[in-house]
What does this fold into?
Amino acid sequence: MTFSVLAAAAHGGGTPAWAMLAYLVSGVFFILALRGLSSPASSRAGNRFGMAGMLIAVATTLVTHDIANLPEIGIAIFLGGILGFTIARRIAMTQMPELVAAFHSLVGLAAVLVGWAAYLNPGAFGLLLADGGISPVSKIEMGLGIAIGAITFSGSVIAFAKLSGKMSGAPILLPARHVINLGTLAAIIVLTGLFAVAAPTETMTLIVALTVLSFAIGFLLIIPIGGADMPVVVSMLNSYSGWAAAAMGFTLGNTAMIITGALVGSSGAILSYIMCRAMNRSFISVIAGGFGAESGATAAAGGGEQRPYKQGSAEDAAFMLEQAEKVIIIPGYGMAVAQAQHALREMADLLKEKGVEVKYAIHPVAGRMPGHMNVLLAEANVPYDEVCELEDINSEFAQCDVAFIIGANDVVNPAAKTDKTSPIYGMPVFDVDKAKQVFFIKRSMGGVGYAGVDNDVFYMNQTVMLLADAKKMVEEIVKALD
It folds into this structure.
């Protein structure tokens, strides 16, 4: 919404010096927001910095431009604020990944609409030349903004559908998909160049074709990507939305949009790189789509055979936990679904009262979204010094008495280290197989992780399966401990 407001108001004469200073201040607030959001401890302050920065940017743009439809913009801001507030209050943490994808789609669509508005009425945006045309540089910026925005929109729609379960998370592999994708991208680049140099009477067909192909390539790029790589897709689309906003900022001459878009685009790109490194993926292999898809289908199909496993009770787990010297808890998406974080913290507190050392092991992609588990544990007031990243705690599993897995799956699957045919092969995982005892909470033996493959940890000699709702099982363990 704020992106559209900035864009709608960004036209007219030169920007006053005080307004440039205000945009700079808002940019500093955005940087402080990103810095704050890097840690759960400072995330609230980071959110406030971001809100303050956007308020300054929007207010400055409205004050410094001649706005004919200010009441309509005010109504749009009010309605958008009410909608955002309502969604934020009602949305569950387990739905955050698909919500982020949905919001990215809106940013992309806003970029497309602003680009088309600038094309259809360049005079209102200060882009009209004396000969009645638009400069080639402005048209390149406009074309890039529309193209990136359309790719962001359609790609985010597919990501939302896969994350929300409205569409299968399995890769959909089209014949000769790489050739189709490369050809479509090449056509978009050529169309952007032709659009920049074409006469005003010839540009309509070119911009329509550019828009249609950009929407199409967004679908084509995301459909072949499997569920295991969805966290990277979400951060990648976040980056795309930023670059779309930055491109439109150049077109409209709005400094705030350029700063905001560049920050979002660069931070999203850095996050994508971090996610790829955490999953031992190359960025190119992810965006090419279908990475490990064929082998993943084979691996999933091979999991139909029932293998022997040990099943235990809450009393069994409680007895072993209170006898342990060191317990490492690995939370995952199942904990988020069951909202078991508060019961888990209560269990950990009881264990610490009995002299047990308790730590939490967080994988970079736990919960289908970076930082998802950290936020849930912070919500339950888990001390930050007990929460450890994979690279910091993985070596401790060999000295661990109990590895307590609650709702995690792919991030503890040893197939990532041993099975070259697995779609998660090469992804760093926790070495829970080195722990003396493993308790694994999941609803039933029928389910598999988001990557769709079976897990050998279920069947290890030291593993005891606790088959129940995660929250209910932990609450029963708490009763047995108390």
Observations:
- The mean pLDDT is 83.
- Residues 348 and 358 are 7 Å apart (CA to CA).
